[in-house]
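Service request form, structural biology core

Requester: graduate student, group of Dr. S.
Request type: structure prediction, single chain
Budget code: on file
Notes: please return the result as structure tokens.

Sequence provided:
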Amino acid sequence: MASSESPSRTFTETARRAQLIAAAITTVNEIGYHRASLSEIAQRAGVAKSAIVYYFSSKEALLLSVLEDVFTRLEIAVAQAVDAEAEPPAQLRAYARGYLSYVDGHRAEVTAGLEIVVSHRTEDGTPLYLTGTEEDSQVLRGILSAGMDDGVFRRMPLKVAVALVEALLDVPTTELQRDLNANIEPFAVESVEALMKGFTV
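Core staff response, request fulfilled:
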């Protein structure tokens, strides 16, 4: 990798990386993960293919950087929403609303990220979406665990609770995968209400 991977990136390097990540998002949404070659991404970025390789060693490196960028921003947005509340029920509602608000406001980024998560495989052939760890859901696990300990959430295996919340919040994102311009507000509102009714006692 070029020296641009060092912590001290210049403004120009940061801007160019952001440009390439944006072009990769557009490309994945337009033609899918498997057809999103470096040439296709370069064409949409208006740069030479060699310019991408300077910043990212491969297509995979670029697309994994898309994931890191999109979902790190999502995690920050959700954490900020949760931190504004003190009790588990309010935190769970804030988690769901924060998540869905970010998704609604960053449709192209999230949709491309999901396409990459579903399509990319690790070196041993494992689909990327099956490689998650408990750390990935740490905030949600903390909310659900605290709510069950306080007796305000239905008690169930924590792994099951996390999976149910994530599955419910995936409903609006699935609509966006069908149509990037879909009105997901009704799905978001009903998903949050179903979530709260399903977990609170």
